[in-house]
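User: Predict the full complex structure for these chains.
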Amino acid sequence: MALFLLRRIATMLLTALCLTFIVFWLTNLAPNLEKLAKNQGNVRMTDEQVASFLQDRGYSQPLPLKYAQWLGVAPGWVIEGRDGTVRSRCNGVLENGVIPEDGRSFCGVLQGDWGYSTVFQDNVGSIIATRLGLTGKLMFWVMVVMVPGALIIGVLAGMREGSRTDRSLSTVSILTTATPEYVSGVVFIAVFASTAFGLRWFNGSATSAMEDATFENFTLPVMTIALYGMGYIARMTRASMAEVMTAQYIRTARLKGVSFPNIVMKHALRNALIAPFTVIMLQFPWLLNGVVIVETLFNYKGFGWTLVQAAGNNDIELLLGVSVVSVFVVLITQLISDIGYVYLNPRISVS
Amino acid sequence: MKDSYDGPILEIDSLSISFFTRLREIPAVMDFSVRVMPGEAVGLVGESGCGKSTVALGVMQDLGKNGRIVGGSIKFKGRDLNEMSQEELRTIRGSEIAMIYQEPMASLNPAMKIGRQLMEVPMIHRGSSEKEAYERALQVVTDVKLPDPARILDAYPHQLSGGQQQRIVIAMALMAEPSLLILDEPTTALDVTVEAAVVELVKELGKKYGTSMLFISHNLGLVLETCDRLCVMYSGEAVERGSIKDVFDEMQHPYTQALFRSIPLPGADKNARPLRAIPGNFPLPHERPKGCNFGPRCDYFEAGRCDAGDIKMFDVPGNERHATRCLRFQEIDWQAPTEAGDTTQKSEPGRVVLKMDNLKKYYEVAANALFGKRGDTKVVKANETLSFEARESETLAIVGESGCGKSTFAKVLMGLETATDGQILLDNRNIESTPIEGRDTQTIADVQMVFQNPFDTLNPSMTVGRQIIRALEVFGVGKNDAERRERMLQLLDLVKLPRAFAERMPRQLSGGQKQRVGIARAFAGNARIVVADEPVSALDVSVQAAVTDLLMEIQREQKTTLLFISHDLSIVRYLSDRVMVMYLGHVVELGTTDQVFAPPYHPYTEALLSAVPIADTRVTKKHIVLEGDIPSAMNPPPGCPFQTRCRWKSQVPGGLCEKEVPPMRQLGDGHQVKCHLSEADLASMEPVIQIAAE
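Assistant: Here is the predicted structure of the two-chain assembly.
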């Protein structure tokens, strides 16, 4: 098992490296850099001025070298600009052209230096930490609502395939999955948070929930994300459950005299959960997706909202930081899903 | 706990079960009656679709959503099961009536430990504590003769072999010492020697616990060995019912007679006494004829009488509890000798077409497919020094149980795998290392295969004719489409299918008809060597005879070399000229059919012969039951592959069997045996099968 984990983590790191490189390359394309230069310098800069601006700030180095510096495996650049000032990646503008005693030569992601956000005027690392915390809170409640809800609906629908319960629950799950967050979110706001229907039960904005989440201000964003995923997982669980209920070993159990509730709980459930478990774990990355929409819609300043801001304002360092974190979230959930799969399904062994 | 009820355990009286679909009501069982007395074993015999499993599920009251009992009663110990509530049924299921199923793997919960699944039974029905239940489980697992019961209880089903799984299913059924045990084809999925051991166990336990049994099977030989009485079913009805002796020796229904004539018994011979297949097809449930269901296929059919109306069961005078559903049973001369079918001349084998010389096939299996380190591999020796030759128009049977390497050999011959060592000579050309992609069209057309399962080997979305034409295109037969179409129709004639079938889809065909299409496809390019991998084992008995005869007939016409892979020794004896017995990748015995089926035997052949059930009351067999399972090819025993289960091992001095693989010994006339036994020991062997004088 330890060896399996080790191998998986090694694969994970490799994947992360490849993915971040791709994001790094895309954010460092020439047009992006030009935009960056004009943003930070002067909008009316000439092409030469742009070139020297980028040259002076290390942007014109070869891509692999820049990537290595960003990672923190190559020493940060020190460049004497045409205007005579000496700039360095790690220690800012150098007064007399030399790195001070306490200065560092390496500063990259590995050293914990995630760069500086141009939009928020703050360290990327600390921005991501706070935003991730806020999104974590949102995700936690989404999971608390979504997973048990979906499993219960799926199992109830699947245990008696074709029954009235099955058909009504299935209709509900298809309906929720077929409604994307940007539709359901708007509908919810209109119905429950506006004067249109007179039901002002909840808050249409979740900004206050960042400080202090209450039933009033947090229900709508949580439900918007949860409902979408719930239908999907419930469909999966239902299909898996319905299949398991027709299996021969369920007949064996029935003809052994096991009562129906016990058949469902003891014999069917574990077998029926094997397939949806992977789906639930795959749902995490999908949730990040929904988070982007919902956080923007409800003005909840979490991770997704930050991503939108970073992308919209060409904030390269922040965008990179957000991507790295997303990549790791996806890969770690995959790892957990593989381990959990082994635990649920005794036929698969990792040793 | 057990009550002192002494009437019939199970009494089914004119039971009718129907399945309801949107279109119509489909009667699955009609007017079915049977009685099981305490301690009695009753066999229920019939072909697939005759309703025997439906009867079993009817007894269990578990017919699913669409099935319903529409008439009659099922009385268990005098109480009508039809009138019980779900609650009452639940207390009976598993404690009073238990069931053993066809596929052991599928009927055990894959995500639950064996111990849990067993302990559940007493915990539900007797309210036993976990500890008592565990004790009981341990005892029952010991009873079914599984080694190391404590470890087995802690295992998951997939960690056991097929035979062990079936023993667990039996153990589960016996946990609560039921009064009635229903066995639904309990050994169909198992190998012959394992089957023999399981049947032995069931008989023994039945006696020990005094359990009554309802034994459902399509295998008449197995029923003869296990049951006291039997009931033959045809198309939803019981057609004949009586004691084993009465039904086997004094059958009173044309269907029973036809069934016996279509199975190869000792004495049947493909040239002198060919099998007689039952003409026609099994009627679909909604297309049953008026009157006698068997009428259209019956030799004794009398129009205006047999098809006049429903036929009741008649008691056969003179015999005890023997009944038949035939109007004419007193008019038919049951002793009349079988009309001799078309006898044919034995065809002489021609020149050698295929020669195998020291063929070896090893597989390297990585310990972990995904992240396996190098050097972490195990070698599976699937075929070890295979040498034989096959001649033109000869049938060579390859016999062995699962894992003996017979399918690997077929794959190497077909070119789906390449040999590790040794050579295969087809017309003196080496083909052992040419994969199928590298073979020329002629070689591919020459060596063809008929597969085991006709249901999976036809493309479900292509018409039959199209599939055969496709094969013709691949083999380069015919200049244009018209010619190929003509040839396809000829092929349909060859396999005796109506030409109209060319336009049909595979799903519109019965199993036997599909297998005929498979045969037509194999012979499309005038194949000279046909590997038939268990071609009839998935088919019903009455169809088996027809398909076998077809293969024989085509062989006679086309002088094909037939390599017949099978585990069914009866059919092998019937049709093959020479037999090769394999065990764990080794050829243990090779010789003509007469040589292999008579002493001296290889000890494995001897056990195999003893294990095969024969549906003939005149036959007495020597009783040899092999202990344990076939060893895994991943981890074969040292020395002789068969030494772990051999009963003659003690006869060989010096533990030679455990040290050395025996050499292939020539016993004269091409009869070869791979065994360490001395000449004297081999000569002292007695025949396993003896037919009592008539």
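The interface with chain B takes residues 4, 7, 162, 247-249, 251-259, 266-267, 270-271, 274, 344-347 of chain A (CB under 8 Å).
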